[in-house]
């Protein structure tokens, strides 16, 4: 249920409503708005109508059921887009955010050179995997904590916030010491214990779409993170499994349009994993911006043919520069015409 407070409701009245929600056995989440605050009360769906009794409390304007199964992620609870600030970068605001870097951190020179190159070309955030969830146990699994150290160092040198993937709930605290944003990969998008754990962390989370997930299931996964109190979730479309095999996955750009309708959370697109081929990354990056994405995640490597993972889909520095030039044209168009 959404408890809509009156614009003139006092802090005291808000606190009173919060404690009444808890007394009824529900979990309150306050969404602070420019003109009024609303409270999302989530919990057992079956008895939710007891919350209707809150309507008589001072400061309450209305108690409205949230019809969607995803409650905190839905536009019903929050009409305006969520803007997530990380250092000096805003995700979900007016700017298009570009996250770039190698699939995996491989060594110091590789990550620092990539950081400086992508920064120069206009990227905002540096990516790099330290724990890699690989299909085969016999391939490179990432440098672990050493990779985190190198990623942090490269981020500091290039003056960029950094993001890395978390694959294990036990790693969350350690990873939080080194990075600014946590990433949940496609293979863990329905690992509910991991989702709950990153929901307790105080870092934003990029939640990639599970490769066989519907949009509704994806939003329900986001809900697991939000429900733990972490409201800084960014959704990343990275392609889904279909019968098509000309590309590694099928980039579902309609998901961007659907999500912008359904949720207030920022939405970014990863054309690297979606297509699997460097030559398709730039056109799909432009298409993602045209579709209304808030940002991009792009794999970049100094020598893609020597990459330990995902080389075929990684751009070299000059291809990334060219992509950025091309993408900028679409950013200008999208930001002038998109509501
Ligand atoms: C990655 O970002 O390197 C990655 C493993 O992505 P995904 O989970 O989308 O496959
Ligand atoms: Mn990768």
Question: What does this protein structure show overall?
Answer:
This protein is of the alpha/beta class. Helix content is 35%, strand content 17%. The protein is built from 10 helices and 14 strands. It has helices at residues 11-23, 108-121, 145-158, 172-178, 192-199, 215-226, 254-262, 271-275, 278-291, 317-337; strands spanning 2-5, 27-31, 38-42, 60-64, 84-86, 89-91, 97-101, 125-127, 162-165, 181-184, 205-208, 233-237, 267-269, 295-299. The strands form 3 sheets. It has an 8-stranded parallel β-barrel, surrounded by 7 helices. The chain has a 4-stranded antiparallel beta sheet with strand order 2-3-1-4, with helices on one face. The chain has a two-stranded antiparallel sheet with strand order 5-6. Helix 2 (108-121) packs parallel to helix 3 (145-158) and helix 2 runs parallel beside helix 10. It binds phosphoenolpyruvate and manganese (II) ion. Phosphoenolpyruvate (PEP) binds at residues 103, 129, 185-187, 208, 238, 273.
